[in-house]
Each structure stands twice: as structure tokens, then as C-alpha cells.
# Entry
Amino acid sequence: MPVNHNLPVRTFSVVTGLFGLFALLSFSIRKGHIEQDAPTGHDSLMIVKDSAASVKAFLEVYNVLMSPRCMNCHPSGDVPLQGDDNHLHTMLPQRGKDGKGVYAMKCANCHQPTNTPGEHTPPGNPNWHLPPADMKMVFQGKTPHELAKQIMDPAQNGNKTPQQLLEHAHDGLVVAAWNPGEGRTLPPMTHDAFVKAWTTWLKTGGFAPQANP
Amino acid sequence: MIRLTVNQKTHKVDVDPDMPLLWVIRDIIGLTGTKYGCGVAQCGACVVHLNGEAVRSCVTKVSRAANQKIVTIEGLSLHNDHPLQQAWAEIDVPQCGYCQSGQLMSAAVLLKENPQPDDAAIDAAMSGNLCRCGTYPRIRKAIHRAAELQQEAGKKPF
Ligand code: FES
Ligand code: FES
# Structure
């Protein structure tokens, strides 16, 4: 299996604060393991590299990320998508700089903190948005290889460390995919199963499937 | 009791917190300039300002507006003289008029955030407001005119 991703290995402890936004993370090394303490009580990241298991887990993750509930807000253009056929969102709302829309067409003008009852009504979340313009995190059109590389790259993943990626499976907007409002299909596995695949992928090294298998 | 400020006036309303803000504005407070079109955030007839944002009041629960500032078409200006209202009258924008309060409330957010919008900005801001009478070309023209009026008057954007 090709090794497409290597976590930085340090033989000393580092404590760093990122713009005051992220909790302090401590790293230490033990014989081939990299341990990163979870600041929020979620699982902590202990990496035991296993590229075969990692790639297998990512392919499950990929099926979820490419499902409409995830991909529709990770479009290749600047207009979100809708429906199981990933058509452009009616009314063509624009991403905007911060991912929250523009002018009179901001996401939260229609998307409330909770789902609006009934079919064909706006799904809701207190933090509804697309990725921002300077970090588009596109899923649409990405191969498993491309998407895995992108997610592991802090320059393309919203500056997330592997520990933060691990926790991201529990992010409110991620979890919202499993409560999409009436009449919408769910991702192809349960959230628990997704967390398991996601965690396995990261804990086995976050390997990317081959570019041309 | 839910407290909300509508057009700078404080109201206390005894309603289900899940009631759409549109119902409260029209049926409880009695301001009927804001219209009901679709009820599912698809048309823009019900747009009001919630803390300056052009929310769709048909899907906005009144609980979201509690202790917040609402502006409806009746409160867009004191004497119906917002540059947009002047331009709308000058260019005779409305046909049946049903969509127009929503159009104006959306356009007002555009002009506040972009005092000299080009056509692309107008499209981006107004693409969620439908007009069954097809007054879109006049709406576009009137927004450009309102931008001029606003600039001529040296007014701070509303
Ligand atoms: S009535 Fe609210 S958007 Fe149509
Ligand atoms: S003027 Fe009739 S719907 Fe717009």
C-alpha cells in the first residue's frame, strides 16, 4: 500500500495555542504511536499505522461524504446543492466570503436553528453555512484519493489537526446530516457507524486510497 | 408573553413561541403590509428585517424574534421616503404589488451592505424574491436609481 500521508513525528512535547480558539493540545511519542490528548472528553487520537485498514475505512467514510446530505453543502461551485440529484439550490444563493450567503440571501434568513416542519421546507441548524470562500473544502467531483488527501491537509481542511478532525465527526452540522428534515434521505450508514469508520481511518494513519487503483 | 420590537415599538404578545413571526406581525400586531405567499421560504413575499437581516417571517418562529428588533415595510422609513420607495414610485415598479414589500425589504439590505450594487450584486441579492407579474427589469432599474438617490442625498444607508 502506498504511504500517502505521514503525520509529523516529534520526540519532544509541544504545547501550542492557536489564536486562542483551540484548546491546548499536547503531543507525545511512544514507540510508533502518536498520542494527542482530547481536550473535550471525546476519543483521543492514538495512531497505529495500518494503511490497509485505513484505506478500507476511508472508502466507507467517502460514501457518506459523497451522499447528498454532506456533499450538497460542499459544492464545487459557489452555489449550494439540493436534493438527491444534487441540483443547484433553487434561488441560487451564493456562498459569500464567510460561507453564510450574501445580502438578502444569507443562509440563516431561511434556515432556522431547527428544521422547519413539513416537506420541501428549509432544514435547520443554528450554524447553517457553506465552507468559506478562502477554504472551500469541495467534496463534489473528488475521487477517494483526492478527498482523503484534502481532509488530512490543514491547508485545505480548515487548519484542523488530526485530533480536531477526530472530534469533527461530532460537529453539530455534521450530525445534522442524520436529522435532515422531512422527506430527505439519510446518509448511507448510521452516525455511529460513520464515527467508527472515521475514527478507524484517522487512528490507522489517515491514509488515502491510491490515485488510480 | 413574548416581547418584540416592531418598527421601534415594543409589543408583548401572548402566543405560542412556535407561531411564525409572519402570523404575529399580520394577525396579532395588525401590520398587513408584509405578505404571505408560500409559507415555506420559497417566494420572499414575507421578508422583514430581524436585526437588519432579511429574514423570511413565514418560517421564522416568533421565539427567534423575542427581544429582537423587527422592521417591516411599514417601518422602512418614517415618511415612505426611503430611496428605494422613492425610486419604486418614480419608476412605477409594481404591477399587482403583492411581492413588492418583500422586494423592497430585500433590496434595502442590499443597499445597506453595498450602496452601489452592480447587476451581479442585484441578482445575488434578489434571486430569492419572486414576482409573478415579472417586474424584475423595473426592480433592477429602481435599485440602481435608489443607489443614485441615496448617494445624491449623501444619506447614510438605512
Ligand atoms: S411566504 Fe415566506 S417566503 Fe413565501
Ligand atoms: S408585482 Fe405582482 S407579484 Fe410582483
Remarks:
- The beta strands of chain B are 2-6, 9-13, 47-50, 53-56, 69-71.
- The pocket of FE2/S2 (inorganic) cluster (ligand 2) is lined by residues B 94-100, 131-133, 135 (CB under 6 Å).
- Chain B has a mean pLDDT of 96.
- The first strand of chain B starts at residue 2 and ends at 6.
